[in-house]
Write a structure and sequence with these properties.
This protein has 424 residues and is an alpha/beta fold. The chain is 37% helix and 21% strand.
Length: 424
């Protein structure tokens, strides 16, 4: 019965979305990939929004439900029958009454299991695609036959592009480069590779008032050059969405200087390397949104070089949805953690592998985030830098919340909505 109801709801949302798209014919910029989609979507929207009337996916609404919600311009009704009725009324008003509808949609799309993106592409087809990195072991791999199958699905929006339409890819991703050759799209690349259309270099920490306040890099596009800044978050991964956004701007003939100006208001979304002042004069790197092997690797690389006077503490939760690759990837990350942190606080059963490798790092083991939060609040010391990262279900944002020096900063954390707080 539940599957039948889901099929019916998706069908209705699809039909309504088709009708709205046929009436208003907005250009669609689709964001796909495995790492950094939401940050990239927000950065692309910041650039294009300065020149077009856009609407972007809220948060990471990237499913066969989330995409229609964005097209229709409605919030997630959850289980509220009145909210679903309001959604239908709003959609019919869009279809039959005059409305000032966006002329561009920036849509994040994602796949949890085989066929997810095929279903989304039946709802909407892109006019441009921005790809983020697709690592060797992608997230959600446990639901697929192989990592290659995940990568192929994540790249599938590019295959639906019209000839000569913009396809924006990471220049440092061999799979993306190879797959792009199988399309007829106009390829624009971004990254640190010398061949990148949007070439970034000199990546480093951005400082304000003597404190780390984000990331900075040098950007080159043809004969143009400039500096880009990603405020509020740290890590090389925070610069790549900015570079992707500059590539998207280039695809739509927006000059580099204007694109950089538009990005001055951009900040990465919650839970993606955000910096906070922690208890006992510590520093928190809040990377609690989710955790894949590639993302944890990047986060640990940032922790290793982050300026500090105290200890480097890596609070790492389980990496989920890795299937048969779980043991191998947890063991691989444990080697990186032992060389990047002075203290490893492992949260969850799988995460115990992070603290299993011999080395100089002190190890703390916790069954869940609630226990970790209550212990770590008294453990952190002045000058400590605390990285917090874990898969969504581990709820490591609860640890970040407990460590905040200013409780009012909790509104800037991920998963603070009432529906999330009600979940155990």
């Amino acid at each position: 019965m539940k599957n039948i109801l889901k099929f019916f709801v998706v069908l209705v949302l699809t039909l309504l979305s088709h009708a709205v798209l046929r009436r208003y014919r907005p250009r669609v910029v689709m964001i796909s990939g495995s790492v950094g989609k939401t940050s990239t979507k927000d950065a692309v929207a910041a650039v294009l929004g300065a020149h077009f009337f856009i609407r972007k996916s809220e948060k990471s609404f990237n499913s066969e439900f989330g995409v229609p919600f964005t097209i229709l311009g409605v919030e997630n009704p959850w289980n509220n029958p009145l909210a679903w009725f309001s959604l239908l009324k709003s959609a019919l008003a869009l279809i039959f009454l005059p409305n000032h509808y966006p002329n561009m949609l920036v849509l994040e799309v994602g796949a949890d299991r085989p066929g997810d993106l095929a279903r989304i592409l039946r709802i909407v087809t892109p006019d441009a695609v921005v790809m983020t990195r697709i690592p060797e072991i992608p997230v959600h791999v446990e639901a697929y036959a192989s990592p290659e199958a995940v990568r192929e699905e994540e790249f599938s929006p590019a295959y639906s592009l019209p000839a000569a339409a913009p396809l924006i890819i990471p220049a440092d991703d061999p799979y993306a480069l190879d797959s792009a050759l199988r399309t007829s799209a106009r390829v624009i690349s971004y990254g640190v590779a010398d061949s990148a259309t949007v070439h970034i270099s000199d990546i480093g920490f951005y400082e304000a008032e003597g404190k780390v306040a984000g990331m900075t890099a040098r950007v080159r596009l043809g004969e143009e050059e400039g500096n880009c800044i990603a405020k509020g978050s740290v890590g090389r991964a925070q610069v790549l969405p900015v570079a992707a956004a500059l590539a998207a701007a280039h695809a739509f003939s927006i000059p580099l200087t204007k694109a950089l100006k538009a990005l001055e208001s951009y900040e990465p979304p919650p839970g993606r390397g955000r910096i906070f002042v922690g208890k006992n004069h510590s520093i928190i790197i809040d990377d609690s949104y989710n955790a894949s092997p590639a993302a944890v690797e990047e986060a640990l690389a940032t922790l290793k070089i982050f300026p500090h006077t105290g200890r480097r503490i890596a609070v790492l939760g389980d990496m989920l949805e890795l299937g048969r690759y779980s043991v191998m990837e947890h063991e691989r990350i444990s080697m990186l953690a032992s060389h990047s942190a002075d203290v490893i606080a492992a949260v969850g059963i799988r995460a115990r592998a992070f603290a299993a490798k011999p080395g100089r790092a002190e190890a703390l083991l916790f069954d869940n985030s609630a226990i970790a939060a209550s212990t770590l609040t008294d453990f952190v010391q002045p000058g400590d830098v605390v990285l917090v990262k874990g898969s969504q279900s581990i709820r490591t944002e609860r640890i970040v919340k407990a460590l905040l020096a200013n409780p009012e900063d909790s509104v800037r954390l991920v998963r603070q909505e009432k529906k999330w707080k009600e979940k155990l």
